[in-house]
Amino acid sequence: MKHALLLTALLTAGLVRAQSDLTLKTRAYRQQHEQKLLDEYMGLLAIPNVVYDTAGIQKTAAYIANMLKRRGIDPQMLAGRTKGVPPAVYGEVRVPGATRTVVFYAHYDGQPVNSNQWADGLKPFEPVLYSSALDAGGKPIAAPRDGQAINPDWRIYGRSTSDDKAGVFAILAAYDALLQLKVKPTANLKFFFEGEEEAGSTHLNEILERHKEKLKSDLWIICDGPVHQTGKKQVLFGVRGDVNMEVKVYASKRPLHSGHYGNWAPNPAMMLAKLLASMKDDDGNVLIKGFYDDVTPLSDLEKQALAKIPPVDDQLRKELGFTKAEGGGKSLADLLMRPSLNINGFSSANVGKLAANVIPISATAALDLRLVLGNDAQRQVQKVIDHIVAQGYYVTQQESITDDERARYPKIARVVAKSGYNAQRTPMTLPIAQTVVKAVQSTVKDEIVLQPSLGGSLPLYLFDQILNTPTITVPIANHDNNQHAENENLRIQNLWDGLETYVALMRL
Amino acid sequence: MKHALLLTALLTAGLVRAQSDLTLKTRAYRQQHEQKLLDEYMGLLAIPNVVYDTAGIQKTAAYIANMLKRRGIDPQMLAGRTKGVPPAVYGEVRVPGATRTVVFYAHYDGQPVNSNQWADGLKPFEPVLYSSALDAGGKPIAAPRDGQAINPDWRIYGRSTSDDKAGVFAILAAYDALLQLKVKPTANLKFFFEGEEEAGSTHLNEILERHKEKLKSDLWIICDGPVHQTGKKQVLFGVRGDVNMEVKVYASKRPLHSGHYGNWAPNPAMMLAKLLASMKDDDGNVLIKGFYDDVTPLSDLEKQALAKIPPVDDQLRKELGFTKAEGGGKSLADLLMRPSLNINGFSSANVGKLAANVIPISATAALDLRLVLGNDAQRQVQKVIDHIVAQGYYVTQQESITDDERARYPKIARVVAKSGYNAQRTPMTLPIAQTVVKAVQSTVKDEIVLQPSLGGSLPLYLFDQILNTPTITVPIANHDNNQHAENENLRIQNLWDGLETYVALMRL
Question: What pLDDT, in 10s, does the model give residues A152-161?
Fold first, then answer.
């Protein structure tokens, strides 16, 4: 009964469907300052921020610190115990009389880039405007001059345009808008920009532990990920966990001529193909023993929210250009509530112009396992390792294989896993969750989408475990943003919408 | 009976086992001129010769033409009908009173190189001496000064050190040795150096047809490939055919975030893994329907020669560092008499430091099919295509897939094959074959190895079809030469042995 009432409250919040005065004021402010907003954002995008590029990460952190300063906030670099890892850029705004404290989170580091894979003329760290998405025939547009209209359907191409400099920028631009509009936040605001998210947030625990007092709050709001594929704004109550693995299969010590040895020497690419093929059935169900065990069932409320998510499968299949999805007919929304195993890439010797008639010496696959509530990252990794062993492999973590190992084992695989992290879900029944939903809904006429969990991952379990504080994710990027890949982009309107969303969230 | 006698003649030729005077004279000559020989060879190796590098190919051809000139031979560039393809470098020596004409073939083009894959400090076109093989702990050696001893176990590292500039050089150095020793060849000699072998000898037919008269001869002797793995010299009476294929599997039009879409969006790397895995069983037997049909059985003589080949499987397994070969226990020598399917490489998105949490858009595999007598390249390719279709794929040759195709077919693969060529075998019963065996045997005390076919491929069927002339292959490179791959190398002693072999072959 209690659930049903709350569900009604949550899921009908959208029935108000009037845009608030604050939203309209924010829009008018933005329309007057589009050029200035874009200039500041382009400056942020031009700084290389690949998570493993120390120099670029430092520059990006310094640029964001400066953005805080320009807004009258004293920036702090929060480090953990370990030296030499990207700091979190932090700032806070105390609001007299506020009874709540909210931390706004985004991350400023980006995924690795392989420049060769980007479309002609695009460079990951030379952000450029396009008239529309590349695959809709978008063409480059010269930077608009002052006063020139900015089309909200334009896109900015570049690494982290969506993931997640958009989050950093939307949060800081929202605070700036409040300052300019002379509207006071209703809660104490804290800004926390992480610099190591794309490497698995390996040291976030240290930072949270060391700065526990400073980071005290009632809620973390996470700005990362895309809005719903229908274009509707969404509020997400959790994330999947994630852990990356690499599997490398070894064969001959030296590459062999495929004519002189083909049919006899073991082929590591074929061995890896067979190993990978053994992991999933033709419908994409994972065949690894126990892979779907440990899953915490969804609550009734979560199930009902899930059932209310607008179906997008047909639209997406068309947009993405395929007819048969994995999952044997289950919907995307349902499938994201299961743990998954993905091949992120594989490689052995060369293809294309560099292909040669050889039998390669090794073959490597990059995998990621997404985890749902109940899964444990290390337990899930162990299931994969056990499966590889069950296929007859000797499994080692060493890069170099000894002659003794080679003589002893017919099949050898190096399997390494990063530390990874578990899933997290904030109960949809929390009162503050309802407040967030109302705030986001106040910015749009369309009913917003509520999801028990994002398909993607963020280390939100840490906020729960270390700070004992709930997290709610409110994303802003367009869904077709190519995040994590070549040709990452952001639709300008999503930045403007995100600004309105975050202004509202600073008045919780 | 006739076969049995000839077999005896062929297979006991080695019983003489005395090195000829000519061999000993050649050795003494070489010992006096090692530095000069090496210098000329290093000069040849330093010229880039990747088959697709037009400028490098032209320079290499010009350098070889100059080598002919230095030996008093008028060099000619033989072209076919098609413009802009690598010419064959040709020269001839008429010998008064000779009753035979022999063409000596080698190719001067090389396989593509991926410099990143070469060992530290090695560059494909900066040939360098090593104290021994890299994986035996070899270290770089400064170029020896005049008079300094050259250790025959040293190796030269660089592209085409073995495949097949070694062939070009051994032939021309042998002719030079005859000149210096004032020993007349007994046959008219023709030199033919191809420049497009590593691209499948696509235009060799045109060259042979256009210059049919000029190329008239009794025999082509092919200098390519390695000596036997025991280190013994060998004579090969045929080659496997070869045809390269590329299979590219398509999924989403754009790369997807593996968190937001993993478990639902089709994964092309997994699709390709399953497709490749379906092609061979765990013992390496090809499962494609009819793959082993069409094979012309070995003659009794060929079977007996095969049975006499020294077993090397145990030695090789140890040397190459694996315990389980493909083929369910059959010997390497036997397996090379079967058609094969090899994965030369595969690729999808990225692994290692560039790996990202994506679902890739496509996955590509490079395959080569080796063919034996009776197979037809196009028929063999069609069997693979039929197999891919039988796995539910729509197969196209187009690189770009239309929206209509994407909407219509759940599984899409682009499959392209190069033209390739068929196998060839010269009957071991030919009298001239016996003469060649005797000549090679005259250079060593060890009994030489006779093989019905090389595992590798050369377009020898063309000499048969167009010129109606038999071919016999007499290789010189060390078997552990990494040909076609990174860290290609030649053992110096193999060059010296090759010189003696080819001097003998010019006195057939």
Answer: 999 999 999 9
Over residues A188-198, the mean pLDDT reads 97
Domains of chain A: 2-237+426-505 (3.40.630.10), 241-295+338-417 (3.30.70.360)
Q: Do A225 and B260 touch (CB under 8 A)?
A: yes
- The answer to whether the CB atoms of B284 and A272 lie below 8 A apart is no
Dist. CA B193–CA B165, nearest whole Å: 10
Q: Nearest CA to A171 among A56, A34, A71?
A: A71
Q: Cα A376 from chain centroid?
A: 19
Asked if the Cβ–Cβ distance from B322 to A52 is below 8 Å, we say: no
* A1, pLDDT greater than 50: no
| pLDDT over 70, % of chain B | 97
Average pLDDT over residues B164-183: 98
Contact B418, B377 (CB under 8 A): no
* Rounded percentage of chain A residues whose pLDDT exceeds 90: 88
- Indicate yes or no: CB of B482 within 8 angstroms of CB of A254: yes
Is B320 in Cβ contact with A260 (below 8 Å)?
A: no
Which residues does chain B have within 8 Å of residue A132's beta carbon, measured at their own beta carbons?
none
Which residue, among A263, A292, A354, would best test binding to B if mutated, counting the most B CBs under 10 Å from its CB? A263
What whole-number distance in Å separates Cα of residue A389 and Cα of residue B255? 31
Q: Which residues of A touch B486 (CB under 8 A)?
A: 255
Q: In this predicted structure, what is the pLDDT of residue A4?
A: 44
Q: How confident is the model at residue A3 (pLDDT cuts 50, 70, 90)?
A: very low
Radius of gyration over every alpha carbon of chain B, rounded to an integer in angstroms: 24
**Any idea what the Cα angle at residue B94 is, between residues B88 and B97, rounded to 5°?**
150
Mutation for testing the B interface, residue in A351, A368, A487 having most B CBs under 10 Å = A351
CB contact under 8 Å between B326 and A260, yes or no, is no
List chain A residues with CB under 8 Å of B350. Answer: 112, 114, 344-345, 347, 366
Read off the tokens for B406.
């994407």
Please report residues of A whose CB lies closer than 8 A to that of B277.
270, 273-274, 276-278
Asked if A474 and A223 count as a contact pair (C-beta separation under 8 A), the reply is yes
CA distances from B201 to A50, A82, A502, B153, B159 (A): 45, 59, 65, 33, 19
Quote the CA–CA distance of A251 and A234 in Å, as a whole number.
49
All residues of chain A having their beta carbon less than 8 Å from the beta carbon of residue B340 are 258, 262-263
In angstroms, the CA B93 to CA B190 distance is 6
Tell me the per-residue pLDDT of B287-328, one tens digit each, with 9 for 90 and over: 999 999 999 999 999 999 999 999 999 999 999 999 999 999
Give pTM, 2 decimals.
0.86
Q: Which amino acid is at B82?
A: T
CB-nearest partner of A345 from B274, B327, B349? B349
Identify the H or E element spanning A271: helix A268-277
Which of A58-62, A299-303, B406-410 comes out lowest in average pLDDT?
A: A299-303
Question: What pLDDT was estimated at residue B2?
Answer: 47
CB B27 within 8 A of CB B500: yes
SS (H, E, C) A165-218: HHHHHHHHHHHHHHHHHCCCCCCEEEEEEECCHHHCCCCHHHHHHHCCCCCCCC
pLDDT single digits (tens) A250-276: 999 989 999 999 989 999 999 999 999
For B351, the closest of A263, A324, A347 (CB atoms) is A347
Mode of pairing for the β-strands spanning B454-457 and B238-250: parallel
Give me chain B's average pLDDT, please. 94
Q: Is residue A280 over pLDDT 50?
A: yes
Task: State yes or no: pLDDT of A43 exceeds 60.
Answer: yes
The ipTM of this complex is: 0.87
Residue B320 near residue B244, CB atoms below 8 Å? no
